[in-house]
Fold these 3 entries.
Entry 1:
Amino acid sequence: MTVRLTNVIREQIAKNALIKSGVIAELESIDKRKGQLAQDARIFAFGGADKAKEIDAIIKKLEKMESDAQKLGVSIYISASKNYGIDLAIGGRRLGRVSYGSDSKGNGIALVTPQRDSCLFAADHEIAIKFDQLIAEQSKANKRKEDIEKTVWAALNSVTTIKRLIEVWPESQELIPDNIDSVKASLPALKVEDLNKMIGLPTSEAA
């Protein structure tokens, strides 16, 4: 049976190619490190770890007071000035709101955050240097992701069936969704070596 290469299947194959290449995991790692660095910047802006802990403890007490009052039937709201990110400027450049990241459950981390005028870091500050490094890493990873997407989509758009895709790019079998009934082919590969190298195919050679 000939299986048409629909846009839905193409999208899944392209997604699997990005996952296989490792670029998705790389970008997730960069986001996680940026979140931790944003938290470090918050501590610096507050004047150090001890002061940040004192501020967090005060806010925690205020939140408990609010909760206790509500249990007594009194509706009050105490602003804790919590945000999911920090407004940063490094070396005179505004980065905008940088997220604190997510917790183990995938929920955004909300923290008491200093005002933006307190979040200014000189270009030679440790925080600024690390952010510049992460931004450069992110830019490079995004470029790699873009290159893979363009190349994979060019291959996918050049054929109309799963069978033909496997004929022109045998290693793509690893990327085809498991629920697709594809014909296994053992035909010689054409000029797809560069594409396979970008993604890390086949697995036996990449390992």
Note: The radius of gyration is 25 Å.
Entry 2:
Amino acid sequence: MMENASRTAAIRRGDAMEFEAIIHEVLPGLLRAARASGVPEDRVEDTVHASVLVFLRRHADFDGRARVSTWIHGILVHKIAEERRILRRDEAREDIDEVVEARFDADGSWSRPPRGPGDDLAQGEIERLLQECLKEVPDRQRLAFELREVEGFDTEELCNILEVSANNLGVLLFRARSRLRECLESKGVEGSGDARL
């Protein structure tokens, strides 16, 4: 999705009022995405601040082929990668074939179908449990899930932000959803067979 021409021109010429509007617009999402990616809480604001500074320094490079929020989130992803290198965090890896074999039978049907929704848990409790479970999802998968499900980025935008192919994005989202489902089920939250995280 492209940015509109007038906003692109304002960004490229360094319009301070446009910058203020953009930062006000994207800041909450940047903070959520940084938290979702596993950046330690005491480093979240610094990582987002560094991303905004890159945007402000490189505003003339913005060409409008993507929305400005997509461009800034892409910068954030690079800053998160830098943060990971600094903190030397390794993302746990799992073989996609093992995940599929564990969840589906040879015919492609659920080997252990998700259960129906529990009526006794209040929405607040489910949200608390979801936040707990999100902490157990590897950083890159959690970031993909957060950007898709909370921020609402479409596949093309997410692929640009995360610099992955559509297939790789699908794997990240599948793994995140599977881990969340398993974690929530282990905490007693049940979903219906047609429920979707």
Note: The two ends are 25 Å apart (CA to CA).
Entry 3:
Amino acid sequence: MSDYSDIQVEIEDPTCVIRLNRPDKLNAFTYHTLKEIRTAIDSAATDPRVVGIIITGNGRGFCAGLDAQVLASVTAGDVDVTSERASDAELPGIFSYLLEVPKPIIAAINGVAAGGGLILALMSDLRIASREASFTTIFLKRGLISEHGSSWLLPRLVGTGRALDLLWTSDRIDAETAADIGLVEKLTDADKLIDTAKGYVRRLAESAAPLAIAATKRLVYRHLGMGYVEALKEADVVQNEFVAAPDATEGAHALLEKRTPRFKRVGETGD
């Protein structure tokens, strides 16, 4: 935790909790914040103690997006935003790399998720929201478009018409509405939010093979852009690989012996 200034990181097998820690700014991020988040995610992705990664915010907000002063510098041309990407081969967008992390990313949304903060929630694999959370796209009110992959992800979650409505109007919606339209998967009371997210990861750690979780995540996102013929062929290849792998043997033995399976974790030696 002492290695970071804008975030806090807590690892307790099988979870890694990353807390955005600029509560006086509703956890709005600077480029330094983004680098710290990326460092923490990369570290957790290779840590065998971690089955799932939870991202949340300290204070009243989940994340209000890009800090206003940084946004002013960007729009004035004082910051070269293209230089913030790790490499030209990487997907564009501030949190697009989360789609390729081989572990579940859960956004535990405790308060407002706006602009880039909404992107952080969208690019996470699951969204668990406090009933006190709220959501707004905000981009068009700033003279911007639906940025950082939101035009690709949001329609897939809520449908085309609802996505356009949210993007065009920048209306702020509450957690109940977000759940009703499919923007979040689970709702919980504020005081149970982190425990709910941790409980979900613990459930995965006890019952699902981490290597299979990683492969399934990869296939789901890849197949969003494929026709069914190519997707089914690829799934068949990966399926056959896993049938012949040690985790499948372990899963079968655990079933026969009526015990909890002991699957290999992502990051363990020999991956």
Note: The chain has ten helices and ten strands.
